[in-house]
UniProtKB/TrEMBL annotation:
Protein name from the UniProt record: Tectonin beta-propeller repeat-containing protein 1
Pfam families recorded: Hyd_WA, Pex24p, Tectonin
Places the protein is found: Cytoplasmic vesicle, Autophagosome membrane; Lysosome membrane
Family: Belongs to the TECPR1 family.
Gene Ontology cellular-component annotations: autophagosome membrane; cytoplasmic vesicle; lysosomal membrane
Gene Ontology MF terms: phosphatidylinositol-3-phosphate binding
Organism: Pelusios castaneus (West African mud turtle)
Amino acid sequence: MANSLLWAVDIFGRVYTLSTAGQYWELCKDRQLEFKRVSAVKQCCWGIACDHQVYAYVFSSDVPIRYQEETYENQRWNPVGGFCEKLMPSDRWQWSDVSGLKHQQLDSFTLPSPHWEWESDWYVDENIGGEPTEKGGWTYAIDFPATYAKDKKWNSCVRRRRWIRYRRYKSRDIWAKITSHDDPKQLPDPFSDISVGGWEITDEPVGRLSVWAVSLQGRVWYREDICHQNPEGSLWSLIATPGEAVQISCGPYDLLWATLWEGQAIVREGIDRNNPQGLSWTIVEPPSSENGILHVSVGVNVVWAVTKDRKVWFRRGVNSHNPRGTSWIEMVGEMMMVNVGLNDQVWGICCDNRAVYFRQGVTPSELSGKMWKAIVAGRESDSSQTSSSTSLLSAGCFFSDDIREQTNSIIHGDADVSSDTESPQLDPHLAEMPRLGAVASTSGNDTGSQPAEVSTKLAADPLDSAPREASCASDDGEKAGLEKPTSTADQGSQPAELQWTNIDLKEALKKPLLSASTFTETSSLSSLGMFSVGDEEHYGADEHPLWAWVSGGGCLVNSHSTLKWFTLQSGLLPSVQSLSLSISPAQTAAWRKQIFQQLSERTKRELENFRHYEQAIEQSVWVKTGTLQWWRSGKPHKWTDVRVALEQFTGNDGIRDSILFIYYMDHEEKKYIHVFLNEVTILVEVLNDAKHSFALYTPERTKQRWPIRLAAATEQEMHDWLALLSMSCCESRQIQGPPSHQAIWSVTCKGDVFVSEPSPELEAAPHLMPCDQMFWRQIGGHLRLIECNCRGIVWGIGYDHTAWVYTGGYGGGFIQGLASSADNIYMQSDVKCVYIYENQRWNPVTGYSSRGLPTDRYMWSDVSGLQECTKVNTKPPSPQWSWVSDWYIDFNVSGGTDREGWQYAADFPASYHGHKTMKDFVRRRRWARKCKIITNGPWLEVPPITLWDITIIPSSATSEEPIALWAVSDKGDVLCRLGVTLQDPAGTSWLHVGTDQPFVSVSIGACHQVWAVARDGSTFYRGSVSPKKPAGDCWYHIPSPPKQKLKQVSVGRTSVLAVDKNGNLWYRQGITPSYPQGSNWDHVSNNIRKVSVGPLDQVWVIADKVQGSRSLSCGTVCHRTGVQPLEPKGLSWDYGIGGGWEHITVRGNATESPKAALHETSEEYSAKAPAVETEEHGGKGDHSKGMLLVNEGQELDGNAVSC
């Protein structure tokens, strides 16, 4: 998980950030401004400075923020002079927007604020619908407005062309003042509060945010049009309120609360993707009439509040359907303010010591949490102020008792500024305070009760002559436990009296005394003590941070997060600890490699003394038995209880081999089947929400598309069998350790990662090794896509678009013990969406309803409509996944939707569109729900940019040369990774490559040939890419195949192949060193999902509708045979493992074919290849030569293992 930041403002107006992986508050880079409040999200932070102006802090990134300005030049044909600028009076403007209604000249475009700069001058867009236009970019039509085409015809009377110019946002990693271009009479007053949220309301536009603010006069304002391409927004809109507002809080989705001067809260209702400002306000009364609400903070399903007496309250029953909630629950502690962040986690600032507290135990099932825990992280400046003690430590000197006493006296002397800061004695009753319970009651309609929690007051009031005693909660509240900071540096210090302080903004110039040292987990005060001298240097009179505001809207904390905020490090000081961080990962890897080589040489030397001894070989037999279920091969196809036995034996040659027996009953007769594990080609989990099942393939069963399927009673039992069988298969084939650099990697539809070691016979004719005999072993982790090269650099992308780099380990997941490496295994998580469809048919009486015709699909179904999928019975993909969200309407559907998410069509199934017409009698909408898997494997996250596609150059000229790696972000930006080497496979930074439109696929081949596919299906070639110029200079538009839109491209040594959106595979003809763009596209095959071209121009694909002996399979690994320089498209297909495969890459396989095979002519090979195809497919050799053809009328067998 990538690091995220907690933001805070101290009493002097300085802004600090605390990383979830760090231990020190870091001062914000822009130190010239003093702030009152901040509100943060993942990508930015908004704040109000002491001048009451709004500022935005946008985080820097390797991907720039670019905005495309466009205008159209329009012309009409004149019989005298041809096309000219003179238009008819009824025509549009000569320079206009796309609709022609708005006048837009080139010189009318200006930068919206000083934080932008022009990236380039105006230029003509020479692209229309994915196809390149003629020089000049003109498109032609009969009249305005009409459908435009790139070719001029005899009746083309008008033409237009699009001009483009980009501007770039430059004010990143600094506080940028939000300027206002509104009407001077409508300018907002100086601001007093601000809140940022709303990023979960809609995904369109990308990065959309809701920014709400409150002015000094109590008016509420909303900032319009904030998104990724416009981080400042455009203007402020005034939102009417029922009273004068004081403070406001906006959640990630549709919750918005504000507080009024009268102490009431107001809730905004009607917020959705079509109306992010909401519709109306509803008033919520405070918990008690005596003390109104002073501060409020909201999340997804929670509302926390602080009343004027500084008590903390939790609102029960809050959700999207009831944003008001039902009742208030009082929590323990007195806070100045609270803030709700991501995952509904809560932070607060204590009234007594101005420390930041974190609410522990907040989970989806217990939103109120369990206890407060203080964050004791030091500030970044602390390490520099301890330089004197560090120098003494490095010189071997330590403080003596006399020095300790002098230091203590100096600290107390500096702290006693005035008599009113005298420290009261600790109440002896507090140390023996019993565990208190609170009777739960409500101030709303809900009369339910909550379990009592341990409660304790935070501290004694320093302004009272005697400290207060802790008391029970009021009848209107319920209290939760509290915990104070724990110091590991001074656990054994003797008890002493505490010195309390309460400094507000007016007393900021006074030097505070030391705060309380520790509270134990049980809120006992008996273990309190003073800080030791080492701790006083961190939190002395000038060091204890006093906070005024905290914001966790961009801080991602969950139950798996390991935070270093709550304990002080003992032993080394921060400046000394920083020395251990100076060793880079590359140096560590080189050091480990050197140690390994030395140990290997030592082992060889020692074994030389024992070469004359006879080797001892143990011959043994080991058997494991168990009970599983087996999917019967013969009819009736059903799950049958079977007894399985794995017999493992060691031969005279010391090689282990195993046999798996499956015993079953057939018509009261005992039978069995057996499988030699040295013949097993793969063991893979099957995507099934009802069974813990896995499949076992052999070459023969791969041809049949009918593996042996076994199911266990529990997930753990299935993983135990998979781990044991996988290890036995590897032992019988003598495969161990990490994959080689030449390995072929693949990913299943389920996200499992597999690797196969290629043999030289895999690409060598005439003795070609069938790819159904390849052995695949699983590598831990969960990915959607994977790419590699022949030097061992491997990157992957998860379903949540997170990038991962291979660490060199093996194993992980359920593969543990000897079958997994001891190091280089890390935690990995992935998130994806599960989709179901709500279907309706139009009724003349009631309109659209869920009552369809008897022949219709299920009213709640999958995308095909053949399987019923309701919100209740739809489960995560497998037991390893867990839900992390509720069901929500998905508006990002191909074809578009209306305001409620519906798509319309004439009938099921058909082509859907987002608007209703007279002929539309059915409609559907897609519902989505996110689920998450947590596993481990040899992968490290590469933050912070999320990716869609990735490619690595198959090989490079020298080992010292950086490895070229290109990628496409999930937003469509093209990126080039810098600094990728064998020692640092993750690289250092991204270099943005400018494009005119979003891209979806990119591939780099030999000699730095870079090809890419845009989202509209158009193809591009990047010119002048080289090691010295890694980003190249410009894009060349390549015409796509006729009437086809490409979706993926792969580049090898001299070959370029692409897949279109209809599943056709195309080969680019005419590529030469002098003309690398090629001349035309040549069709190769159909039913292709993905293609991978290797460094030797090998062609491997993931194909659909592959014929087996019993069924058709989707997602099958196929190898193109007969690929030679004289026959670059190959001759026929060899079918491998499948179905259920999603991705394959052979870009690391640079194993050359034997020289003898190279002398064989393509004619000799072509005479043999069809014979193989004819034998396998019953005389269909002529069709299989170029196509993956099947009987389109044949249904996919539901018993087959497929996607």
